[in-house]
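Hi C.,

You asked whether I'd gotten around to modeling the 504-residue construct. I have! Everything is below, sequence then structure, no commentary in between.
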Amino acid sequence: MEDNSQSMASAARRFFSGTMLSRISGLGREILMASLFGTQPAVAAFWMAFRFAHLLRRIFGEGALHAAFVPYFEGLKKQDVAKASRFFYDLSVGVVVCLIFLVILAETLFGSMWLFGLVGTQSTEVLRLTMILFPGIIFISLYALNTSFLNCEGCYFLPSIAPFFFNLAWITAICMLHSLPASEAMLYLSMVLGFAFMLQWMVTLPRVSRMMSYDKRQKTPRKQLTLILRPFALGLLGVAATQINSALDAIFAHIADAEGPAYLWYSIRIQQLPLALFGLSIASALLPAISRAVGDRVKTRYLLNSAVEQTVEWMVPVTAAMVSLGLPIINLIYGRGAFTTTGTLQTTACLQAYSLGLLPMALVLIFASPFYARSKYAVPVAISMSCVGLNILLNILFVFVWELGAVSIAMATTVSSFANALLLYFAAKEKVKWGQAFKLFVCSFLAAAVTCYYQKDQILPRHFTQQLMQLGMGAAIFSMTFLASVLVTRTRYGVLRIRTQSEY
């Protein structure tokens, strides 16, 4: 497999196309949930249970596992493809055994709390739904391992579209259950999601089976399997710190404004869409490629620069679009029913503050890849934890000292993301050519300024057709202004990735 900017761009496009369908279907399921079931106590209990499962997915199923597996697997592939495949198989079996033990332990603990009445009435409902959802962590982790394996084999579309089938099962279930009482519907939905987690994993299973080739008599030494534990543990530490920070953000937001956590939740769900589509897609294509280039400084620098250029190409204009079009976007998605005009304005402010951090958040994923490829996991983990501390400090200042409201939580996240990206950049000691970045900033800022001027006196319609037309006009003005400024400044937008390796 030849690794260059074109192959990485192709991989990122395949990841993007699958993730686009998955993310849009995920947004659709949440809009449908809100429309059919509202915010009843039973629904709130379900979301609490699901967020707990989501937390475990982030800890065990993503991030740390991927970063630990990919470099080690690529190193084994250089020695012996069959040995690498056998390692993947044995690791999957080991993960299943460990997670089954964890699930049994957790279910026993939860069951004891329920049996002896150690929780209140509302918490009992959360506990019951959590017990139903918890076994899904096994299939989430297996799906994550399959995703890492397929990415190393150059397959990006299938694992990125697999969550679409999970969301499809969810949407089908709530459409069938909407006539039931909310408590009963949430119980059945939790059961369906257990099947949906398994379905997401099974979508990737046939392709993984076809790509694996190993001698069944050959076993992976136990010592080799334990070598992945240290990087996984370090990555786990970084992910856990981030998730604790996310929980603290919600607490600070509640202190700043009783409705603050809702503003943050609705806004960050929109902000994460371009981050997953562009930032994560490029980073997912970069890590396997840069792991194969370990020891070749020129190739590593070439791949890193290509990833940075592609990230800048996408994230700078997207940031400008999200900031200038944030109000019509939020109004189109949420601006109806019980979602008030005040809620729309406050959520928009949070979205704009979060959106300013899109580029550094994406660059964090890029600049961390060389460390993971060289098995220097302690550096990005230490930087991540220090930035978590910075974020908490900023939250204290913004909320308690300056009383800036819920939007200040999003501002603190953006500032700490810039700090994280800068620290990783200087720690990497890699020379990065920023290419046409300055011209892109100018073109994007000009498009955002013209769009904001056009929208300055607009009202917020509550009818879907009017909301769609308002967003369409704003998007058209932004696009035309941006493209015109690109032509005037002769910015090489869209062709920056054609540089050759010799230029680095």
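If it helps when you're writing up: Confidence is low (pLDDT under 50) at residues 495-504.

Thanks,
B.
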